[in-house]
Each structure stands twice: as C-alpha cells, then as structure tokens.
Amino acid sequence: MPLSGAQIITRALREEGVDTIFTLAGDHILPLLDVLYDEGFRLIDCRHEQAAVHMAEMWSRVTGRLGVVAVTTPGHANALPGLINAQSTESPILNIAGSADLRNYHRGIMQEIDQVGIARTVTKGAWLAHDPRRIPDLMATAIRAAFEGRRGPAHLTVPVDVQSAVVEEEEVRFFGAESYRRTQPIVASQEAIEQAVRVLRGAERPIIIASTPAAYGDWGGIYERLIETTKIPFLTEEAARGIVPDDHPYCFGFFDLSQHTAANLVREADAVLFLGKLLDFTIGFGFGPVIPNDATVIQVEPEATQAGRNRGVDLALVGDVGPIAAQLADEAAKSEWAERPWVERFRTAVAEQKVRLEQYVTDEVPLRSMLVHHTLAQRLRPDDILVFDGGDYSYYGRAYLPAHAPRSWYYLPNLGMLGQAVPMSIAAKVARPEARVFCITGDGAFGFNAMELDTAVRHGLKVVFLVGNDAAWGIDKNLQVGLYGKAVITDLVPSRYDLVAQGLGAYGELVERPEEVGPALDRAIEADGPALLNIRVQSQISPRAQAVVNSRRFGGGL
Questions:
Q1: Alpha carbon 387 to its chain's center
Q2: Distance between terminal CA atoms of the chain?
C-alpha cells in the first residue's frame, strides 16, 4: 500500500497518542493539513503562529502529553517566540514546519530560510526530514529529546515535496512510543536516600521547594505522603503549583520571594530539599542571604548538568523527581517525626498575608485589583483553571488566589513573555473541556494575542477573560515614575476591549464600579461562549515593583 509523507507523519503521531494539532494554514503544510483532516485529528486553527505554539505548550502542560504545532515557513518565523517560551516553561512540544521543495534548497526558492538552524538555537533539537522513509525515526528522535531530562520543544522541518512523496508501506518502519522513550524511572541509590533523610530528620528548620519537574507526572499523592510523614513545610512554584493543594496542612503556597511572606522563611532554613528547582536568580543563585550559606542543600534534579549549578550542593539526586520523592517518603516512614515549632511560623505568615491583601478590597473608583480577585475567589471551584498574565494587576491575583489542584494554576515563567495567557487559556479549555477556565490578564498583555478570541468563538471554547484595564503598561510605568520621576511610552488608552469581544462574537461587558463586579462576573460565567470583562482598574504599584523602587536600582529581576 502506498503512503505519502503526510500520511507517514499522521501515523507516527498516532503512535505517540496525538489527536490534537494547533496550527494555521499555509502553502507548505497543505498536504499535511489535508491528511490530518481526513484522518480525524482535531485541528485548532489560530490567528497567529506564536499563539498556536503557546496553545500546544499549554496542552502539554495540562495533559502531560506531547503538544504538536504545525506551521508553514513564515509561520515558523512567527512561531519562534513561542518556542523560546516553551523552553522556559519546560513544555514537551513538537513543532512541525513545512518548507519549499527540498530539491531546490539553497537556490533562492520561495520563502527560504534556515529554519532548522534557527530552531536549533531555541529548542532541544531540530532536524530536517529529507526522505519520507526517515520521518518516523526523526519524529521519534525529536519526541525523545522533548521528554528527556528537563523537558522542552523540539523541531522537525518536512519540505512540501517530502510530504507529498509516495513510498510503499513496507519501506517504512513505525515505532511505538514505548520503543523510543524511556519507560522506567531513574531513581537514586538507597545510600543517597538514607543520607538525605538523615539530613532532613536532624534539621530544626527544613523546607521543601518544588518546581516544574516535580509536576512531570501525576505524583501529587507522593508529595503529600512525604510531607505528612516528615511534617516539613512544602512550597510550590511554576508548573508545580497545585501538585499539593495550598490548603494542605503542610503546604504553604506559592514559592515567590516577592509575593509570598511564607516563602521568605527559606532565608532561615538549615536544610533545603529542592524538588526540580533550579539554583537560579529567583533564589540568589542558591547563595545567602536567600539560601543560607551554612544550610544543607539537597537537590533532586532530572538534568545532570543542572545539579549543583552555581552554588554546588551537599547532595544531588539525579533522576525523576516523583519516583525519588517516593523513595524519600518510604525511607522517612521508617521513623516517627514530630512537628517542629518552625511549622507554626509558616501558618502565621500565610494568615497574615491574606489579611494584608484583603485590606485592599475597597469600594474605590477606579477599582482596586484586589476587589476583582476577591470577588473571583468567592466563586472559584477546586477544579477551575486559572491563567495569569501581566504585571501589577495580576500580581495581586497570583499572591491571593490559591492553587487547589495539579495543572490548574499558571503564570508567566521567568522569561516573562507577555501575551501568552489568552491562547493558553483557550488551550486549557481544549485539554479539559469539563473545567471552567479563567484568564486574568492586564490590558497590555491582552493586546498581544487579543485576536485569539476569534479562535475561542469559532471552536466554541468557553473561557472567561478578566482584563484589568489601567490604560498603561502598568508595572513598567510604576517603575519609571518611582525610579526616574516620569513615564516614557508606557501609557495606553482606556480601550473598549468589551466591544472588541462583542465584534468577534464573544460576550463582552464594561465594568467600572464596585457593585458591578460580582453581577458582571456571574453573567460572564453563565454566558454560552467565551466572555470578556473589560474592568477599569487603578494603576496600583505591586509590592514587587515597590521593592525595586525602594532599592533604587533595576536589574531586571522582577
């Protein structure tokens, strides 16, 4: 039976369990799109390729599976920022790009760029399929790269003539996912596990901090068992938010030194267990005063090259975070653990922060951001998905709104690339259609991918967008005024984004007064399709930005 290159791609995707593709039509992927449609793949067509990559990225984060995006050559150029962001969020995605015909490469063919070379700089690997027979093994190589170690995007260029070329089925060998991806976990030695547990047991002020690799698997129950046994304070960041609910007796919420008081207790710890946390700028590269120089540091890390980076650590356990945590829990269960007085300080810090934030829930006009977040909090369910974007407006939401479940609470990675929340919220609804999805974004961030509201409307994807409109690039304007005494090109206009939403077929409403917030939010939640609230808020500097102003220096470490 003859098979085209496009048919070979689709069969290889089926072997990986892929059924959804994020894309935008273009000349050099038309053969592939035709076959994907005929073979029943779900095609989510977007308005911009960067948004398509953000959607594939969120799909992979919510489902734990491979996200796939298909684009043409100019679309590949548009997709690059999304690939850069996917590297930052450690999202396993496969970026498939068409190109002009292979036989005329390097002759000045239509839209010719070195897309493999460009992609190699922003992905975990990039390859060119020069023969349809090679497509399955090249896809297997790319997918393996996406999932191994710290995860991330991979790229495959398939020229249009390779997509259309026909070969006999017996000339092609397909691979099941279990044959090209590791299925057995990498765990630590028993000696190293015993050493780690001795350190934690002997500490007076231990703390556990979990980051993205701790969420690669469905391992939440393992971490609950570990902290219920050891009674050690547990905090989460990035994709690990919600792997243990914030209301768990030993989980104390968001590990962000600028937003969460309890997180700052790490400065007093005598033992720190990092579960997939990089020793990066967010913790002073692992040194004091953030991480005490005399603290014992244990790092569980999936990527060997990241173990002991910058600081050096007392014990590195290289492997899969969840299975190693299970080893630690098993070893810890051999002893009795008493709750340390130190734990009560975390409980006090969390309670005091809630009171401090709620003092901003006032009836002012323009509205305070905290009034919006407090109103939303009263309507949230444990299985809702929250996606944050922007600066000062969403800062208060991230600091206030809890993470109740795994893969349900997302914010900008350290790269800080604005504009991703709109497409990511849409993709979250694709991945979990039964969940309610709330996109909390500033007006500046919203503008990057506002036209994806059209994507949500066309595909019937109900997302509630809460746009905080202060008519400014708020966090940067507040920094400029505080540091330099004036604002420079950071003013916007109070645009009627609600009318934009209506024009695209979504529900849109303008909210300007305190008494309007609750009823408007209820109407948005009850709307038949996607809904947007254009909420006029005051420009209110966040504690994060205020700390920069107070220090009178700006190093980009927001």
A1: 9
A2: 58
Residue with tokens 């994507």: 455
pLDDT in tens, 452-507: 999 999 999 999 999 999 999 888 888 888 889 899 999 999 999 999 999 999 99
Phi, psi of 165 (to 5 degrees): -60, 145
Q: Are 199 and 298 in contact (CB under 8 A)?
A: yes
Dihedrals phi, psi of 225, to nearest 5 degrees: -65, -40
Q: How far apart are CA 394 and CA 417, in angstroms?
A: 14
Contact between 28 and 100 (Cβ < 8 Å): yes
What 3-state class would DSSP assign to 440? strand
Q: Is the dihedral of CA 265, 268, 273, 275 positive or negative?
A: positive
Q: Which helix (H) or strand (E) holds 423?
A: helix 421-431
State how far the Cα of 434 lies from the Cα of 398, in Å rounded to an integer.
23
Place of tokens 């095609």: 43
Single-letter amino acid, residue 221: G
State pTM to two decimals: 0.94
Give residues with Cβ within 8 angstroms of 140, minimum separation 6.
12, 175, 179, 180
